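re: ur question from the group chat, yeah i did fold both. here u go
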Amino acid sequence: MPLRFFGKDPETNGDNCPTVWLDEDKQELVVQGWKADVALQAQCLATGPIPDTEAVVRLPLRMAQQIREALDAAERSPVR
């Protein structure tokens, strides 16, 4: 199944970022966000390593509505 689009940052400056989708088949949120800077990554590393297959991204709180809608949809999706 294709990704279900939930929204872009309402204040995006034309770079189409950040964005939130839902992959209902895999029961996963998919996010596009701003890359974390070195200082933020260092703070995150204080709680454990970040695998090479993962990244720290930033999403603004103003996207809470899109994230809530995606989470609500994920909870309503049949568990696979």
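okk and heres the other one u asked abt
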Amino acid sequence: MQVRVQQEAFDLGAEAAAFASAQRDMGAVVTFTGIVRDGAQGGMVAMEIEHYPGMTQKALEAIAAEAVERWGLGDALVIHRLGRLGRDEMIMMVATAARHRKAAFEAAEFLMDYLKSRAPFWKKEIGADGAEWVAARDEDEAALTRW
């Protein structure tokens, strides 16, 4: 299991290939990549992501460990970027490996839902007219109830 919180961009193809090639006796690898898109108000130029380093790392490691145990994963990878990111830049990646696809997909969805709503990151949308902190969304919180 690997969890990385980093400012620098990552190579999606290289990360996915390295993760998949390291798996043994796994029948499924699922990957998901989040991309910065225009904000709710439109006109977003960039997003700034802040965090408390020690707290964030521990929280992400704990949730990844929970996914590994709960779905019997062979492995999991979580990468989340921070700092200033422009539109269309990759913001995060989740990869899961399991003996069967259902477990790999469910674990990946669980991790994505957690990263979207509970991970200790603070996001600010920056536009031509100023900046605004991103508020929690009801639908993101509701997605967690299925887990």
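fwiw on the second one: Strands lie at 2-6, 28-35, 44-51, 75-81, 83-86, 90-98, 121-127, 130-133. The mean pLDDT is 94. idk if thats what u expected
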